[in-house]
Amino acid sequence: MGPGAPMTTAPLRLTIDKDTGVAVVTLDRPDRLNAIDLAMRDELVDVWGVLRFDDSVRAVVLAGAGERAFCTGLDRGADVPQPNSPYMTDDPLLRVGPKANDLWKPVIAAVSGMACGGAFYLIGECEFVVADPAATFFDPHTTYGMVSAYESMHMALRMPYGEAARMALMGSAERMSARRAFDIGLVSELTEPGGALEAALACAVVVAGYPAEAVQGTVRALWAAKEAVLAQAFAQAPHLISLGNLPAERQTELFAGRRGRFRLR
């Protein structure tokens, strides 16, 4: 298999360039705004596992197909069974990211279009974010009667507390622009229009050219600085979700009545 050859099919694409040592993982459901259904969730878990064992891969870029969205979180059409108990809430996206699957190779997010809700499970486990100027970031959970728990916990460690709180509490009424995300440090580079993937790849090629042991040790050290905080926060998340979420049918009603208007800041 030559450089750049695709290794998997929809809902996910994995491309590995053996010459540069860079893999590109692409969320490939543009017709669903790259929302994650259970098939994509399972395939992401598998792909992170593949990349753990492929020593030719030394850096990874995570992107979304199409121009409209990087990822819009969990697909609302996904059938996610839950135990009938407040003590056993199963979160379908908890293991969707690279760190949750013990991958300690650097992952760079290339964000174009919308990144919202469950997308933050992925962004929260990437080393840094490169964004197109048209990218937007928001969290609609509260609008639809859902607790933003894991998502907000990730974002509270990626941006100032007030910004994370505003994003979570304003719901679908407001979206953070790529410029604002860059100004507060959520985004590390703001590219020319359409340039996010190319810029992320350029960074990945540089990092992949360094000794892998040093790079992976640095990734692990960076994550160690915040994983204890996340672990303590995550321990509370299931109970907060169980207590605060509206019944599923009420969430559906609110979602069906949503309005398309929002403020961009």
TrEMBL record:
Task: Fetch the Pfam families from UniProt.
Answer: ECH_1
Which top-rank group of organisms is this from? Bacteria
Query: Mind listing the GO molecular function terms for this protein?
Result: catalytic activity
GO biological process per UniProt: fatty acid beta-oxidation
State what protein this is by name: Enoyl-CoA hydratase
Native source species = Streptomyces dysideae
